[in-house]
Amino acid sequence: MSNRQENPITVDKEFEREIVRYLRDNPDFFERHLDLLADMLLPHQPQGAVSLIERQVTVLRDQKQELKQRLQQLTDYARQNEDLSSRLNKLILDLLDADDFESLLNLIQQRLKSDFEADAVVIRLFNSGAPVLKAHPDLMDWSEPALGAFEKVISGRKPVCGNLKPGQLDALFNDHLDVARSAALVPLVASESSKQCVGLLAIGSQDPQRFRANMGTLFLSHLSHVLTRILKLHLGS
After folding, report:
1. How confident is the model at residue 188 (pLDDT cuts 50, 70, 90)?
2. What is the band of 186 on the pLDDT scale with cuts at 50, 70, 90?
3. Are 237 and 128 in contact (CB under 8 A)?
4. More confident residue, 219 or 4
5. What is the largest distance, in Å, between two alpha-carbon atoms of the chain?
6. Class for domain 98-235, per CATH?
7. Residues 149, 124: contact at Cβ < 8 Å?
8. Which of 29, 98, 130, 154 is the most exposed place for a label (fewest CB within 10 A)?
9. Would the pTM of this model clear 0.85, i.e. be above it?
């Protein structure tokens, strides 16, 4: 003990940890020893010091501010999700009211651009032999190489977001390469366990961070399942 007093720079780490454990287990220690608290100072700024109680108040205030910011973030996320859910529900109702296949396609593209901040929307349907597709060859006649570029996405049956590979960009956004710096690829399936995939919906954005690989895809999955059922009604399958 005398060595510690003569040479305060030398710190016994184990002894120090024991002190920390004791104080943590006895939070009322300084309340029972107010004389020690009166003499104890903690460095705060180069020109001065603050008491332990003042420092504790500062720490608690910082923690409160951090919790307040987290709560605000959660509130913002909840508000955004509520707004997104409302827009998605309205879109679904409008899709159900579409009079024909042409109106349905136009509605999908227009509303995804206006309501969901998309810069490009592309739909590719796989050949189902439906007569209605004869008037829309751009929706279906994909070559094997084009389909191969999306094999992993299609087999996964789940939406994928992020930056596309050059081959994927050419196959989907050949006329909109400059507005698809990030994209969401949405396999059109009735459910994740569905054996049939009727096509692919691609939503592109000029913002490279608009669709990120780590973002949630719950709403995109919901849109996929509903849209697939509506499309199958028009395709007669």
Report:
1. very high
2. very high
3. yes
4. 219
5. 96
6. alpha beta
7. no
8. 29
9. no
Query: What local confidence, expressed as pLDDT, does residue 154 receive?
Result: 85
Length of the chain: 237
Closest CA to 92 of 76, 105, 78, 108: 108
What digits encode the pLDDT tens for the residues 108-120? 989 988 888 889 8
Residue 163's identity, in one-letter code, is N
Domains of the chain: which residue ranges? 2-62, 98-235
- The CA distances from residue 95 to 89, 100, 205, 230, in Å, are 10, 10, 22, 8
